[in-house]
Design goal:
Helix content: 40-55%
Structural class: alpha+beta
Oligomer: single chain
Radius of gyration: 26 Å
InterPro entries: MTPAP-like_central (IPR054708), NT_sf (IPR043519), PAP_assoc (IPR002058), RL (IPR041252)
Keywords: Magnesium, Metal-binding, Transferase
Number of strands: 13
Number of helices: 18
Cofactor: Mn(2+); Mg(2+)
CATH architecture of the largest domain: 2-Layer Sandwich
Pfam families: MTPAP-like_central, PAP_assoc, RL
Distance between the termini: 70 Å
CATH class of the largest domain: Alpha Beta
Shape: globular
Largest sheet: 5 strands, mixed
GO molecular function: metal ion binding; poly(A) RNA polymerase activity
Strand content: 5-15%
């Protein structure tokens, strides 16, 4: 029942379905700057009940309007005009994006009340640091950071609307298709301002897959056949990319990147203000999103720690929005999960434990990879661990500052360090595709920088005299860690690097000895 669902934590699939359905009843309106909220809502209500709405700033003022009934949109569309083609000719695609203007602005300007605008990006780090200094513990500092950075209800609605608007294009060709967000938009770890990863899904056509049961005939569609799934993906994305480029209102800078490992179309969706990446259904990525969703829902400390570590890494240049040899946010998130699995008692279960709790409907084998784990959060026993975030933050830096990266890899299935299967500086097992390292891109200097920063941060937290720093109005706790470790600390950090560097040389020598020994053995074996 609905009542039962609302009292417990919803499953990932329930949340997705609900949000996609909500997005279908939603329109986006560009408003004049002197808009009268009451009059706008009064007008819109003539087409049906407005269930929720909010205003936000994006090259002027926009309003997201959610109707109770999908039919209200058709009624509104019937009343909307086509822009006059005085200097521009228009592509007559009728979407759910509208522009409202006032017929006679002067008379309506009288009774304006200031609008509440929903923020769609987080505050700058320097403003965050000031807020953090006013808190009374590192724990509350971390929750402040989480509140400032996490996606708001409004921002999530906007993300699902962006997907829904792209879906309207896809449906022109594939009437059964859906467009769904994955990754940080849905896994509870997204921060305001992040891109929207979305994929085109044809699997809702699953109901056609059950073969004709009755009668003497097998019937199936005649469909174009191509030599590989990859080629089909590239063709579909190429056409939909062209379509967005040529006809999509507010779709700009469309780039087709069809030869990547995972072909995609990048574009900027101006009406919602998002950078979007569109690919074709990636079931394993969805499973990763759901796994993180589960971890994020189990205990409030999980998200607070992840957001804190990612913000810390960004400040110190350990992560970067451009692809390269630095650690990605996804890798960092997995490192935090691993650390929380290793606490005594553990704060979150291992993937193998979640798999043991899975029932029939949770079984997912995708391309030979077992992606099964429990989806009902009620089946997972809450942790007995009561450590505060103050403790966990210091312990995280301590743990990874002294982790044996030369020998060990990070395995979330087992929740324990496993010997590295190959020599990448940082080896984090892909939770589902067991032969992949999700941090293969990270090189030795970047890993060493991470270790040095972790050691420095652990040291700062240990030696700190909080009361004195609060009296002196100096940044303390988390605030002190979000200030780049400047000139004064650079010698100390060099010393921290020294230890690591010599370890690296030692490990090189060790591996040379090993290689030598094994090649000698091979020679003997011959």
């Amino acid at each position: 029942t609905d009542a039962e669902v609302s009292t417990r934590k919803k499953t990932f699939a329930e949340v997705q379905t609900e949000r996609l359905e909500q997005a279908e009843r939603t329109v986006l309106i560009k408003c004049p700057s002197k808009i009268n909220e009451k009059k706008l809502l009064q007008y819109l209500s003539s087409h049906g009940n407005v269930k929720s709405h909010f205003f936000f700033e994006n090259r002027g003022i926009s309003a997201l309007i959610e109707f109770s009934e999908k039919s209200s949109i058709a009624s509104l569309q019937d009343a909307v005009g086509i822009p006059g083609a005085s200097e521009h000719h228009v592509v007559p695609f009728k979407s759910r994006l509208f522009t409202f203007t006032l017929k006679n602005p002067v008379s309506q300007r009288m009774e304006e009340t200031p609008l509440h605008l929903s923020p769609q990006c987080h505050i700058p780090v320097k403003d965050l640091i000031q807020k953090l200094c006013l808190a009374d513990s590192i724990s509350s500092q971390m929750y402040i950071l989480l509140n400032e950075y996490q996606l708001t209800e409004e921002n999530i609605k906007l993300r699902f609307l962006a997907c829904s608007l792209v879906r309207d294009f896809a449906r022109a060709y594939f009437p059964d298709s859906t467009v769904k967000p994955f990754g940080s938009s849905v896994n509870t770890f997204g921060k305001l301002g992040s891109d929207v990863d979305m994929f085109l899904d044809f699997h809702d056509t699953g109901k056609h897959a059950t073969k004709m049961k009755k009668g003497p005939f097998e019937m199936e569609y005649q469909m174009k056949r191509l030599p590989s799934e990859r080629l089909a993906t590239q063709r579909i994305l190429s056409v939909i990319g062209d379509c967005l480029d040529n006809f999509g209102p507010g779709c700009a800078n469309v780039q087709k990147i069809l030869h990547a490992r995972c072909p995609l179309v990048k574009f900027s969706h101006q009406p919602t203000g998002f950078q979007c990446d569109l690919s074709v259904s990636n079931s394993i990525a969805t499973r990763s999103s759901e796994l993180l969703y589960i971890y994020g829902c189990l205990d409030s400390r999980v998200r607070a720690l992840v957001f804190t570590i990612r913000c810390w890494a960004r400040v110190h240049g350990l992560t970067n929005s451009a692809p390269g040899t630095w650690i990605t946010n996804f890798s960092l998130t997995m490192m935090v999960m691993f650390f929380l699995q290793k606490r005594l008692p553990p704060i979150i279960p291992t993937l193998d434990q979640l798999k043991e709790l899975a029932d029939e409907k949770d079984k997912h084998i995708i391309g030979g990879c077992d992606c099964s784990f429990v989806s009902d959060l009620r089946k997972i026993k809450p942790t007995k661990n009561t450590e505060t975030l103050d403790v966990l933050l210091g312990e995280f830096f301590e743990y990874f500052g002294n982790f044996d990266f030369r020998k060990n890899s990070i395995n979330l299935r087992k929740g324990k360090e496993v010997n590295k299967p190959e020599s990448s500086p940082l080896y984090i097992w892909n939770p589902f595709e067991q032969d992949l390292n999700i941090s293969k891109n990270v090189n030795q200097p970047q890993l060493e920088k991470f270790i040095a920063m972790a050691r420095e941060s652990a040291w700062i937290l240990q030696k700190e005299d909080k009361t004195q720093q609060m009296i002196d109005k100096e940044p303390w706790g988390l605030a002190a860690l979000l200030i780049p470790f400047g000139k004064s600390n650079s010698n100390r950090i060099k010393n921290r690097m020294k230890g690591i560097g010599s370890e690296t040389i030692k490990s090189l020598l060790d591996s040379l000895k090993l290689n030598n020994a094994s090649s000698q053995q091979k020679a003997v074996g011959k």
